[in-house]
Amino acid sequence: MTWNDLEVGCDESGSDGENLTGGNTDVFAHASVHLPVGTAAGYLREVRDRIRSPAEEYKANHLLREKHRPVLEWLLAPGGPLHGTAHVHLTEKAFLVVDRAADLLLGDGGEALPLFREGRRTLGDEQWREFLEAANRLLRVRNDGEPSEPVEVFFRTVDALRRAHAGTEVAAVLERLAAARSRADAYRARIDAGPTLVPVLNPLLPAIVATAAYWSAGGRPVRLVHDRQNMLTPERIAWIEETARRSGIRLAGVRLVVAREDPRVQLADFLAGIARKIASDELNGRADPALTTLLRPYVDAASVWGDDVARALLGKAGPGCSEPSADINSAV
User: What is the top-level taxon of the source organism (predicted)?
Assistant: First the structure.
């Protein structure tokens, strides 16, 4: 690391791999913290002193317990440990599925937002879920059945839905999707031909690129210190670095560590888990306005989000996906 590199600790919450419609969470959060190691360690000690749990390793769920609400508010508040030194990139998983499907099949991610916003209203919860699950299965790398089955299921689902809702705005988009079978066949053929470096549905890699873009926006090179995980192979780290370079992002490198050995990464783990829970509550009508207000300054405007209400409450500026995440489709 050179003397003027910015070093940032990173971690995530809500990872279900490519299973975005049937996993345990509906939001993925990638958080980052820029603090001196000693300062971060001091804040961790203060969290432990305030909570006084016997647990060896603290996680976000300790802070999210109602009895520890004052500690959570202290951590996020203006003038608190993380204010001005931390950032979080959010991904609404269901929207990511729609965005990737629109980009792959229509060559136009701009179709995703109107489809996402009108889809549930027009189709109803059950049929909208069927569409999302079929799209998720089409796009994910893993396939436990016949090679052609994801394509067959998706287009059978699209055909049934467009017939059932003929004449609607959603049906018009479904018509265009139904005409794109050749693109779906070509996509699955590429997957069947060999290993895929960057799965289009995994939100982690584009979130890391977006994190680097945020911290290097002032022109200073950034080096990310990230919690170790299986997804971050040397080949994928090289992809992240190359994608950042092509996008003009000054990413000096990505270094993997064991989270409990770096207090900055532990604080990022806290923020990622907290942000995921607050954002999920917004999506599901369980909003806590006070916590949303505290979270808002940390949220990346380039987060991948489609829900109208939560977008406004979380302070999103622009629709849909960030530019770095769009590059992921061309890598497959």
Answer: Bacteria
The set of long-range contacts for 111-117, using a CB threshold of 8 Å and a minimum separation of 24, is 111/173, 111/176, 112/306, 112/320, 112/321, 113/306, 113/319, 113/320, 114/169, 114/173, 115/170, 115/173, 116/306, 117/306, 117/308
165 is a domain residue: yes
Q: Are residues 10 and 153 in the same domain?
A: no
- pLDDT tens-digit series, residues 91-119: 999 999 999 999 999 998 788 999 999 99
- For 157, residues 6+ apart whose C-beta sits below 8 A from its C-beta are 130, 131, 134
CA distances from 224 to 24, 41, 186, 279, 317 (A): 27, 18, 35, 24, 25
- Count of structural domains within the chain: 2
Pull the structure tokens for residue 210.
């977006």
Q: Quick one: 204 and 83 in the same domain? A: yes
The neighbouring-strand residues paired with 190 are: none
Does the global pTM surpass 0.90? yes
What's 231's domain CATH number?
A: 3.30.420.10
pLDDT, tens digit, for every residue of 55-90?
667 789 889 999 999 999 999 999 999 999 999 999
Interatomic CA distance for residues 332 and 73, integer angstroms? 42
